Amino acid sequence: MLRYRLRNILLLIIIVCFTFGCGSKISRTIIPDYDNKGIRLVALVPVKNKTNDTQAAPILRKAILEELYFKGYPKIPLQVVDDKLTPICGKNTACADKDIPPEAVGEILGVDAVMYCTLAEWKTSFIFVYAPTTVSLFFELRSAKTGETLWKTSYKVVKRDYDFTRKGLEMKSCQTSELAAYEIVDKAMSTLPNGPDFPGGPLPHKRDFLGLW
Questions:
Q1: Measuring CA to CA, which residue among 138, 94, 142, 141 is closest to residue 118?
Q2: Does the global pTM surpass 0.85?
Q3: Are 176 and 8 spatial neighbours (Cβ–Cβ below 8 Å)?
Q4: Residue 117 in contact with residue 65, Cβ under 8 Å?
Q5: Residue 89's domain spans which residues?
Q6: Which residue numbers in the chain have pLDDT < 50?
Q7: Within a domain: 34
Q8: What is the DSSP string of 190-208?
């Protein structure tokens, strides 16, 4: 009896794996004349979180900021962005729950563009000895002058863990979720054109950001 039960579980795992495949999808849209837009200063507003994990969005926001910096866009401190937007959003990360026009952000912060991100999925399902973890993010960069979308992308990844105990699966899936999130940030941001401060790029025409740059 036990042998047949184990066989059925293994068959279920095989069916699920083949049904869902390797589980990674990415798409990108960018305006043809992006390089002529003079985008240098990018404000990263709080990540909109549509999941139940309250800790995920702030972690992702910091990771995205680092990627922007490595892509050649000056690092505008997140706390500065939040403080300056307080009159519009209120305290903490309320901006994540509001659709703030990029023109309004640009007027307050003096930036060229605004990055909006949405954490759409961050979940793990437990099926016997198998646990698929799904993470998906949406990114959109909009002009602070015109409001037009300059670049946008979305990325979804499904990672799979196996263990003979529920506790083991939970421990593995927790680590997998973080790895999947960082993979998404890395892959998605790689589709964003390099900024003017990227090493080896042309010398940028710098402008002031709140008198700090």
A1: 138
A2: no
A3: no
A4: no
A5: 22-189
A6: 4, 6-7, 11, 14-15, 18-22, 202-213
A7: yes
A8: TTSPPPTTSTTSPPP----
